[in-house]
From TrEMBL:
The gene is fdhF. GO terms for molecular function: formate dehydrogenase (NAD+) activity. Residues 6-61 form the 4Fe-4S Mo/W bis-MGD-type domain. This is Formate dehydrogenase subunit alpha. It is an enzyme of class 1 (oxidoreductase). It comes from the Bacteria.
Length: 698
């Protein structure tokens, strides 16, 4: 039946960090179609997720009432992780009862153990205002910095290296800068799948003659448009990038003037990089010395070169080192601070940039201001009227470890699904199961909610007002399009009710009031008032004045470091934590797929998307399939030292010999039962991109 829209509302896509602006058509209180709008990041374009992934909002599986765990439900540690109806373990409750129980349990643990007993995961799917309120609630209410979110699992290592090297964790140029570039490097990123609209800009630039270098251990469609496609050995990024730096230095392709004016650490790099000749690194990374030389020359001598990267770079125990190499390439050649140049870590979730900016991380308050600085802390103590924790909090994986060591005993999780997204799921789910008190606020009964004591039914993106900051640093307004189902409530109002039950005396008369309080602590938003956002719809931060456009290109003159200079940090080879051996001879890597987004909680409930990719698959090179005596399409078991999952075998020539690829969006076969929780020491990000595995018939 043809449905005619009664109303069309301007909003923003809820999925990836590209931040496409949308027009949402609504009839009978339901979304009936989504079109692209002329936003700065998408110019009317949308990908399959943005266009067809909207019906999760009206899914019959939406949580519509507060739930409390039944007294006769199985203990959380005894829950079978199969598809049985976990709703049976809960009873419906009134909001009053659920909020009392939620806040009461958190308060009891705080009174028993202080801040060390409590932690919170906020969400990059929520708005900036919700991220701000969530970190404020944990810091003010429980006097702890144990608050984190999914950035820890995606670009934490990028942010660590960028803060160290150039004093800012955000991109220095938007991805659309491809239009001005002469040379683009895309490394460890698969924008055609994960940032599809950004990929269109990269491909268009390549078609117009911009040189494209794609570096990825797995082949990908973007390589068809590339001048160089480097399928390097997994986990050898530093070897490959240091060889490129070696060429830049030995062939004197660097920019001496730029270095003298803006960069520290060049002499140390010069010394350290000597041994990383292309010939020495060729057997390590698998890329020929001549190719490494050509790529180095192309990047360094092009008038304007830009680097894009993704989780293939960041999710390693040497993730921070990988990004240090990329920063060193940009700083030695002066390929930063001008149109068509720069460093761009492509952000995963639609608001991971904004949630990080808003302080939803354990080391910093809003705008990346250190919790360890007495001056900064006293500003927030004065504003919030409480003594705050002077010590950095624990990160995502550290929180799980601490629970099992008997430390943290109560958690508040809003819109995150660590029971699917954390590495080594048996360990993570055991940790969730051993909490004394778990409050989960979400729109679905997620795998994490299975473990909860109290579940608070929350709002989907399309049901509430809020701002979201995309990978380009563009702050954009998302608007309510449809009503919330049943008794579900906007997340920010739930946070206020919890805060007031903790005695924090919060009062906000709406989202703009929260935004303005957040802005009072964030210099980056100084000239971007709520009124301006309402007027312009999207504004890039930072903006120099209330009436001038934001700065798309940053750091032309200086960096926001103590002395205004950038810093090169040389790196050594650090092998992946778990190498293949006789028992586990293959390399397993995990990631996303075009149709499904992250843990699949939303896209698996979007009919069109789930119809295209309905079942868990492991991809393997067709030759390896033959050698292993397996058949395409058969059920196989993939196993690592941490667990085993059963799924369907798919042939994929892009997967190199000796590798397996498993997407992490399928609850029926959670890839993260297999992954290695070993952390990068700086960014504290787990090594999702490399562990030893084996495969056999199921
Ligand atoms: Fe949404 Fe990202 Fe696709 Fe744009 S590219 S429509 S933001 S998922």
């Amino acid at each position: 039946r043809e449905i005619f829209a009664e109303e069309t509302i301007d909003s923003v896509c809820p999925f990836c960090g590209v931040g496409c602006l949308t027009s949402v058509s609504v009839a009978d209180g339901r979304i009936v179609s989504v079109e692209g709008r002329n936003g700065p990041a998408n110019e009317n374009r949308l990908c399959v997720k943005g266009r067809f992934g909207f019906d999760y909002v009206s899914s019959p599986e939406r949580l519509t009432k507060p739930l409390i765990r039944r007294d006769d439900a199985p203990k959380r540690g005894d829950i079978s992780m199969t598809l049985e109806n976990h709703l049976d373990f809960f009873r419906e409750a009134t909001w009053e009862e659920a909020l009392e129980k939620a806040a009461g349990g958190l308060k009891a643990s705080f009174e028993a153990k202080g801040g060390a007993g409590v932690a919170g995961f906020g969400s990059a799917k929520g708005s900036n205002e919700e991220a701000y309120l969530f970190q404020k609630l944990i810091r003010q209410g429980f006097q702890t910095n144990n608050v984190d979110h999914c950035t820890r699992l995606c670009h934490a290592s990028s942010v660590a290296a960028l803060m160290e090297g150039i004093g800012s964790g955000a991109v220095t140029a938007p991805f659309n800068a491809a239009e001005d570039a002469d040379c683009m490097i895309v490394i460890g990123a698969r924008p055609e799948q994960n940032h599809p609209v950004a990929a269109t800009y990269i491909k268009q630039a390549a078609k117009k003659g911009t040189k494209l270098i794609v570096m990825d251990p797995r082949g990908q469609g973007l390589m068809r448009h590339a001048d160089y496609g480097l399928k390097f050995k997994p986990g050898t990024d530093v070897a490959m990038l240091n060889a490129i730096l070696n060429v830049i230095i030995t062939e004197e392709l660097y920019d001496s003037q730029y270095i003298a004016a803006h960069v520290d650490g060049f002499e140390t790099l010069k010394e350290k990089i000597r041994d990383f000749t292309p010939e020495a690194m060729e057997p390590v990374c698998g890329i020929g010395a001549d190719t490494l030389r050509e790529v180095a020359r192309l990047y360094a001598t092009s008038a304007k070169s830009i680097i894009y990267w993704g989780m293939g770079v960041s999710q390693h125990v040497h993730g921070t080192d990988n990004v240090r190499c990329l920063i060193a390439m940009a700083l030695t050649t002066g390929q930063i601070g001008r149109p068509g140049t720069g460093l761009h870590p492509l952000r995963g979730q639609n608001n991971v940039q904004g949630a990080s900016d808003a302080g939803l991380i354990p080391m910093v308050f809003p705008d990346y201001r250190s919790v360890e600085s007495a001056d900064i802390r006293s500003e927030f103590e004065d504003a919030w009227g409480r003594t705050l924790d002077p010590v950095r909090g624990l990160t995502v994986v550290e929180i799980m470890n601490d629970i099992l060591s008997g430390g943290i005993e109560a958690m508040y999780i809003q819109g995150e699904n660590p029971a699917m997204s954390d590495p080594d799921q048996s360990h993570a789910r055991k940790a969730l199961a051993s909490l004394k008190h778990l409050v989960v606020q979400d729109i679905f009964l997620t795998e994490t909610a299975w473990h909860a004591d109290v579940i608070l039914p929350a709002s989907a993106h399309a049901e509430k007002l809020g701002t979201y900051t995309n990978t380009n640093r563009q702050v954009q307004i998302g608007r309510p399009c449809v009503p919330m189902p049943g008794e579900a409530r906007e997340d920010w109002t739930i946070l206020i009710d919890i805060a007031n039950r903790l005695g924090l005396d919060w009062s906000y008369d709406g989202v703009p009031a929260i935004y303005e309080e957040m802005r009072s602590h964030m210099a980056s938003l100084k000239n971007i008032s709520w009124e301006r956002l309402e007027r312009e719809g999207t504004v890039t931060y930072p903006a120099d004045a209330p009436d001038v456009p934001g700065n798309e290109i940053l750091f032309g003159q200086s960096f926001p470091t103590a002395d205004g200079r950038g810093k090169i940090v040389p790196t050594d080879l650090v092998p992946p934590d778990e190498l293949p051996d006789d028992d586990f001879p293959l390399v397993l890597t995990t990631g996303r797929m075009l149709e499904h987004w992250h843990t699949g909680a939303m896209t698996r409930r979007a009919a069109v998307l789930d119809a295209i990719e309905p079942e868990p698959v492991v991809s393997m090179n067709p030759r390896d399939i033959k050698l292993a005596g397996l058949d395409i399409g058969q059920q196989v078991t993939v196993e690592t030292r941490r667990g085993a999952i059963t799924l369907t075998l798919r042939a994929d020539r892009d997967v190199s010999a000796g590798m397996l690829f498993v997407p992490f969006c399928f609850f029926e076969a959670p890839a993260n039962f297999l992954t290695n929780p070993q952390l990068d020491p700086f960014g504290k990000i787990p090594e999702f991109k490399f562990c030893a595995a084996r495969i056999g018939p199921a």
